[in-house]
Design a protein that fits this description.
heterotetramer; A: about 425 residues; alpha+beta; Butyryl-Coa Dehydrogenase, subunit A, domain 1; Butyryl-CoA Dehydrogenase, subunit A, domain 2; Butyryl-CoA Dehydrogenase, subunit A, domain 3; 3 domains; four-stranded mixed sheet; four-stranded antiparallel sheet; 9 strands; about 45% helix; globular; B: about 375 residues; 11 helices
């Protein structure tokens, strides 16, 4: 991205960053600063997109500089705009890798400034895990593309500005060779777009959205990468996602993961389980569940740290992030299950005629979210066994034949 | 779920299923979520006409068993209710009806059973207390004897359909022993606190008893000797609950497989993937086991088998654990849509979670089984 | 097999059987009578092969008669030669279905008399679960076949008289269409045959054998069914095996399963677990394990009984036997695991310099036997999901192409 | 198993692996099964020359750590030993060497360490007793103080390499406190009963102490105050054991995958089946987690981290449980041949089972974790 000659040394950078961080970034213990505002503060001081090129609004430094910056953030328990991880750690680098110069100049500076927040439009209602099986249809007419279909499980589309959308532009090409990626504006009620927030299992409006595209017109300039080369853009995106989750690469925001200590990252707090067991006098019968929760609260962050270190040292490859994702999501589910059992009837029943949502029972209903969102446990296990351990790939019936034919073959099962 | 049902029983099952499918389909269950009572009393009287309330009551008292094996008959209904996560206090009403039929005085039977049988009045069992434990040792509500009166003091909790009940069969303590008293909901000193649960239609509540004085004739059976009666009621409750959980698990697996056959990933239906198929095979094993143990428990109740306590605890521990795990893994197989309000699987997950906890959790029943082969439910 | 006209009514048969059983069959509580001797007793009195035709040494009655007989055996807690289940319940009916008249006359009477004991020669060292993948080679030369290759996991081949062997007679045919089955004599050191007992994990000589065939000559008359029609013979065998395990069909020996009460069939005895937990003072920590063992000891036989009833009533199909096999074998493994944990160090260490084999530790080493022998848990799960629940079959790469090609393709993985 | 080993540590690992592969390959391990001691003393002296016995002993006493983090160095050896289910009392000797280095008097260090370092003498820890519990409260062997003498009475059990040991570090009770005494194997009143275990090479034994009278200078540290020392020794034992179990699990998975790639069913390698692949993925997760927690425990020992007790119990509970489960499922994947003597997997199953039980089982450590977040190993 940027040559390492003629730039500030990491040591000098570290020293000035430290002073600036101490003087400017709020502590984790202080009131939470709004994300876009915090990002603007970084941007205005040359600390947004530290490893992004200067011409696109970045600092023009290296990942080593970026890591130095966020290590200080972590040491000093400072707030950073971690909600922008997808924008800055995943989508920005993907645009940088794949976009034309015009596209980069158009989209990257406002992204780094915190003015334009991005999210991913990848999964669809009928095919959560099979990203390349998209049936969103993109058709060109002159300088305009028209988008039809729907996307689902997009987090926070209702407050994002742009979505990076994977869709199918050639139905006669084999599955992975007829895809394109395009930037889709989400704010201001653009024509042909409907966004619905999915109702969560509790009955409340949820965090996820479903987007419906009905001949939504998009300028041809919004295409990211070449037409029908969308799968290589998607792979670039997945590469940056793994790095971001692993805490390395351009999305390095190391600090936010450690903020709050071990329990904070795993989300596991054993205290309430112990209290409930004591209150109900069932300590003996549920001791193993409590112990397992303690074990998860210790082992999961240690595992994640180990993998992060391995990725940094290069002893581990990106796919190893799946180990940590699988482990921690299963632990969260396991703790919800334990809470349900340990709290017993008291977790499920309450006085009064109003619906209550803050009990172990309702948490249980949503507990599978952790093992589904962000790639199901099954997909993690596929990745681990095939990519990390090199076991034979699962037989698939959608390779090397026109995608239209794949769809026709589905009826044969 | 017995394989060798009589023709009458098969007909009863078919009628029950048709009634539930037409009167309280899942859309209706969803709409009942927004109601205070969770079920409709007129509908309950229709259910009563089908025989739901009369299974444990002899013909001489206006009831009638289908087969002479009333618990075996009753689990038929419970299983069907599980399949459609149906509303209605079937378990609670039948436990009290059975208790009155088994242990009640002629006067109690005459006074109470007719209304319960017709569905006009609702009777429920008030056993557990604030600590949410369904064992006799945890009962601290007192039934004091005072001449020709009995005086109740204490708080009962987790009482099903408390908000609409006309009668409470209250299990209380008299010295070392247990006493059961039939308490009218409008007796002075009775305060009912309505409540909800995470289940769509099942409501529970608290019943506070403050110096509730009733004639001694309100005592069911003999004061201080209700221990065995309470055990028997608990066994029946567990049999009905296990059957309901079987229905919940089997139906959830059915619609999950339907869904999984139609949902494709990488050019194949998701249920063609062996990792899912093997988990599904394990579910089939535990459903078969759940049916087997539930049947055995119902038969043990009907035949006064001395192994009934063991079977009751085994059934709750086994069915309670596996039913929830099956529903839970079906959510996983369903994927993201399975954790939305729109998909039906959460209706089943709610019922499974509530059934798991009530009348003793698998953990509590396992603790009994760990130390006592004879079990003790 | 035999028409139901002009035969004794089941009722009459039941009455005379009952009297005979009470007078002649030893009680389960009495000293164990040698298998062949007990079978001879049944044979001499017309109770061997009750549903086998008379011309082959059977009683010429029906399965109803047979069931009546063994129900009395069960009620009366009598001994029957249950070790002959494979001979009489599985292989005899297979020969009856598939053999020529000469073959049946040659083999069935001594089989029913208990003079000739049979076993199965199906699995091979390289392919336990994939029975039709056999690479044992059968080649004809005039009136003689020559057998080459080896079989494994054959139980008790060292004391059996004959083995029913599945082998490959045509390598250019697709996998299932080039197989044949043939009777292989095992006693008296026939030329070309070597039998080795497999050394068990404890180091002792085991129950299973491996047989090596080196140009072993076999008379062409020993062929069971037509040449290259071995797979239909094998399917017939599997059908009878399922029925036998399910307690129905010609192998009905209901009594032996119930003899000894619930614990005896599951093999689960919770007493020692409880004692060990008490002795070591770890009751609380291992309570769940003990409870799970109690639950298995109750639920497993109830499940098996339910399936047996369903098979008899016709509400269940044969594949449902896999549910019971999977459940009970996992339970046995689970109890061995629990015993290891509950007994702790005392199960693993002993005084003196001699090897001891009767502890929970050694049992643990062999515990996987239950989930492997007789069809692995994985195969049971395949059967349940595909045959019972009708889920799509696993993609295979060995169908409809010459078997030689299948072998060549293996290198591609 | 740390990712950021120093060059010295990497070299040490390579040397260790080469030494084990050439000197005690699995064929040798099998032949050692038939020997009484389970390992060869001459071979042990070679191992000592590689530095196996000197890691916890300061250079001034003839030892030498590679990196200044001796527990971190030592788990390298333990992991490699697990990979080849190697013989030799590495854990026992190092726990005693560390105890003497940390808490021993100058005289004890001078008298004992040289022989232990060279491998000429074997020292082992006698902590658990007949009930097989590795907690201080279970110690009933007494160390009575009598003028200038200390008198030991009791029976220690599950003592590794008891049959060949020259020195026993005996943990005993003096009133409310603990006392550790270094006892020569030939002291009057010491009776050693040799024993075996299901492990191919690891031998344990009982040490009966009947009025064993030694000069008070045999006490390690101060009488009655050895509690913290015992804790520290136990943490070290658990770290070495966890590392060994990691080696056992990882190597078992490696050769099982090699086997499963070559073994075909229905025209595909068995490890191409998703049900196996997913179970294998779960194994990869727990191996990564096991490495992470073992490293953390070793580091905590090296840095006197107050979380060491928590980490020790978590490591044993987690690694002990998962290591055995991995080996166990590898047997399943291997199929019939996996439960024969000829296949190597049982060598690993044996070691995993023994490691699981010694120094407290996962169940016992979980019981601690259930009630005490600080842990207590």
């Amino acid at each position: 991205m940027t040559g390492t000659t003629d730039i500030e040394s990491v040591e000098t950078f570290r020293a000035r960053s430290k002073a600036w961080i101490e003087a400017n970034l709020p502590l984790l213990s202080e009131p939470w600063v709004e994300t876009r505002e915090l990002q603007r503060l970084l941007f205005d001081n040359g600390y947004a997109g530290i490893s992004y090129p200067k011409e696109y609004g970045g600092a023009g430094l290296t990942i080593e500089h970026q890591k130095a910056f966020y290590d200080i953030v972590a040491e000093q328990d400072r707030q950073v705009p971690s909600e922008l991880m997808v924008s800055i750690g995943i989508i920005g680098p993907t645009i940088l890798d794949n976009g034309s110069q015009e596209l980069k100049q158009r989209f990257l500076p406002p992204l780094l400034r915190g003015d334009e927040v991005w999210m991913q439009l990848l999964s669809e209602p009928r095919g959560g895990s099979d990203m390349a099986g998209t049936t969103c249809r993109l058709k060109r007419d002159g300088d305009t593309y028209f988008l039809n279909g729907s996307k689902m499980w997009s987090s926070g589309a209702y407050h994002a500005d742009y979505g990076l959308c994977l869709c199918r532009s050639d139905w006669d090409a084999p599955k992975h060779r007829g895809l394109s990626t395009i930037a889709v504006p989400l704010q201001g009620n653009p024509p042909g777009l409907t966004i619905e927030r999915t109702r969560a299992v509790s009955g409340e409006a949820g965090h996820f959205c479903e987007e419906f595209f009905d001949d939504m017109p998009l300028p041809a300039d919004n295409l990211i990468g070449e037409e029908n080369a969308g799968w290589s853009v998607a792979q670039s995106l997945l590469f940056h996602e793994r790095n971001a989750v692993g805490g390395i690469g351009m999305g390095y925001l190391g600090g936010w993961r450690r903020g709050g200590g071990a329990g904070a990252f795993t989300g596991i707090d054993v205290g309430p389980l112990r209290e409930a067991a004591e209150r109900r006098g069932v300590g003996g019968a549920v001791g193993t569940m409590i112990a397992d929760a303690v074990i998860s609260s210790v082992v999961d962050p240690l595992t994640s740290d180990r993998i992060t270190l391995g990725l940094q040292l290069g002893t581990h490859k990106g796919h190893r992030g799946s180990l940590s994702k699988l482990q921690s999501s299963l632990s969260l589910h396991g703790v919800a299950r334990a809470a349900l059992a340990i709290e017993g009837a008291a977790a499920l029943v309450w006085d009064g005629d109003d619906v209550q949502l803050d009990n172990a029972g309702t948490s249980w209903l949503a507990a599978r979210g952790s093992t589904i969102a962000g790639g199901t446990s099954e997909m993690q296990r596929n990745t681990i066994s095939e990519r990390l351990l090199g076991l034979p790939r699962e037989p698939a019936f959608d390779r090397d034949i026109p995608f239209n034919e794949v769809l026709r073959n589905l009826g044969k099962f | 779920m017995r394989l060798d049902l009589t023709e009458d029983q098969e007909f009863f099952r078919a009628t029950t299923r048709k009634f539930l499918e037409s009167e309280v389909p899942l859309a209706t269950v969803r709409s009942l979520y927004d109601t205070v009572d969770g079920f409709d009393r007129t509908w309950w009287q229709q259910a009563a006409e089908l025989g739901w309330t009369s299974l444990f009551v002899p013909e001489s008292l206006g009831g009638g068993s289908l087969s002479g094996a009333p618990a075996t008959d009753a689990v038929i209904v419970a299983e069907e209710m599980g399949r459609l996560v149906s509303p209605g206090p079937f378990l609670a009403v039948n436990v009290v009806a059975a208790a009155l039929a088994w242990f009640g005085s002629d006067a109690q039977q005459a006074q109470v059973l007719a209304g319960v049988l017709s569905g006009e009045s609702i009777a429920t069992w008030a056993f557990a207390e604030l600590d949410g434990r369904w064992d006799a040792a945890s009962v601290v509500t007192t039934a004091g004897l005072d001449g020709d009166s009995v005086v109740l003091d204490g708080v009962k909790a987790y009482v099903e359909a408390a908000g609409v009940a006309d009668w409470f069969l209250v299990t209380a303590r008299t010295g070392e022993g247990l006493t059961q008293v039939l308490v009218p909901a409008d007796a002075p000193g009775v305060t009912v606190t309505r409540g909800r649960s995470i289940d769509m239609t099942r409501r529970f509540g608290k019943v506070a008893l403050s110096q509730v004085r009733l004639p001694a004739s309100a005592i069911v059976g003999k004061a201080g000797t209700a221990g065995p009666a309470v055990e028997r009621q608990l066994h029946l409750a567990l049999a009905l609950q296990s059957a309901e959980m079987v229905g919940v698990a089997e139906r959830t697996l059915e619609f999950t497989l339907e869904y999984g056959r139609e949902r494709f990933a990488f050019g194949r239906p998701i249920v063609s993937y062996q990792a899912l198929k093997h988990r599904i095979a394990d579910m089939a094993v535990t459903i078969e086991g759940s049916k087997a143990v539930t049947d055995a428990l119902a038969t043990a109740i009907d035949t006064d088998d001395p192994k009934v306590a063991l079977l009751a605890s085994v059934a709750k521990a086994y069915v309670g654990e596996h039913c929830l795990d099956i529903v839970d893994d079906c959510v996983q197989i369903t994927g993201g849509i399975g954790v939305t309000w729109e998909h039906d699987v959460h209706l089943y997950n709610r019922r499974a979670a509530v059934d798991r906890a009530m009348y003793g959790s698998p953990e509590e029943h396992k603790a009994l089984l760990a130390t006592n082969t004879e079990g003790a439910a």
